[in-house]
From TrEMBL:
SUPFAM superfamilies the UniProt entry points to: TPR-like
Gene3D superfamilies reported for this sequence: 1.25.40.390
Protein name, UniProt field: RagB/SusD domain-containing protein
Keywords: Cell outer membrane, Membrane, Signal
Keyword S-adenosyl-L-methionine attached: no
One Pfam family in the UniProt entry: SusD_RagB
Coiled coil: none
Domain of life: Bacteria
Location of this chain's protein in the cell: Cell outer membrane
GO CC terms: cell outer membrane
Amino acid sequence: MKNIKYILLLGAVLISLTSCKKYLDVVPKGKIIPKTTSDYRLLLNQTTAKGSSVGFVSSFSNDLLMADDMEVNAFSASFYKASDQNLLMFADHIYQDFESDPDWEALYNQVYVANLVIKEVMDSEGRTEAEKNKLQAEARVHRAYAFLMLVNLYAKAYSTTGALADMGVPLRTGLDFEEKLNRATVQEVYNFILNDLQLALGKLPLTPEANYNYRPVQASAEALLARAYLYMSNFAEAFKYADASLRSYSTLNNYNSLPASVVFAGNFQLPLNLQNKEILQLKSTISNTSLFYANAALIALYDKQNDLRFKTLYASDAIIGLNNGYISTDWTGNTPAKGPSTAEMYLTRAECYARNGKTQEALQDLNTLRASRYKTGSSYMLTAGSPAEVLSLVKAERRRELAFRGFRLFDIKRYNVIDGDNITITHAINGKTYTLAPASPRSVLPIGRKYIDLNPEILQNPR
């Protein structure tokens, strides 16, 4: 197959170019431009970083350092660079004015490539209209995912009273490097996400293909619609699309069938991401930090004897001769799956049932998931006497299942807005304690000063 040398350079490289100054993220460089439908297929097939492009699997990781799934001890503190420590301390700024924010650049990198495919693939040479429509739909799903993560990282949680005015993120939709990059409102960003996903429906394969689960499919587009509507507190639509996604594809891994871990003695090993049948669309992480200790409160949520997730997702640091607690195996030699999954959809549908007063239906979804996670013959069935009680169970199960996978910070933000849960995040590092209050503006990541210097119309988040 033809190898497309289509290189994407990050904004910092372009400061030397005086003819153009409006750079949010990336621009193309090189003489070989995609022309055929197969060329665009290759662009969307890129899963790993090549040149300055991150591919479509890498996503984000700064959320983990802001939330409460992890904790820092005297041993692990030395593993975090200055920007990591700024995140842990909820600092005014995370990066120096010359430094790049890898989350921002990775996601906008994907937006740019998606924009290219969306605008040009229908006029490409060769293949059928159906194939071109499929590629355009895939690009729309990738773009929707990127914007959904961006708006949740760099903007306030969606609220019905604030979304029309709250600053979202710039909606980069074209290929013009001189376009204005004013921040759209949170509502405008969500409208854009929903529209992209709706346009993709009906043009994609129904279910993930073996070894190609990085490609969007109908079930993953429906799952992202469910996630977006859940974050909007539109539980009727979230239920509709979670249910549709599960009707399209509902496979769960049975943790009783997992092989022994080759890295951690006494632990189990999930299938590699490409072979993981629960993944609807593979997205992973870009963090270089490799040692994350699980928060003691998180570990306390697991039944250590019977919940097989405990010995699959965590390992005692006794393996390296320490006694500080448990480390995330997802972040130690593996790549955490952060895209939509069937497990997420069971939890989303259960939450929607609970919020709609359907206690037994919510319990059924929770217990279906737990049956695949608990040791055969052990007691895993949950019971509840009210919607409020089952909602509490859903939140706990969601935290257990999705820990370290890109959900907790966003969940805290929305629980504080819609439920008044008043969750305060506390981090201790280098002998000092830092807190993030429920209504703190610091729950929103600051935008890198580098990008505002290049694009002065981008307003900074208040601190």
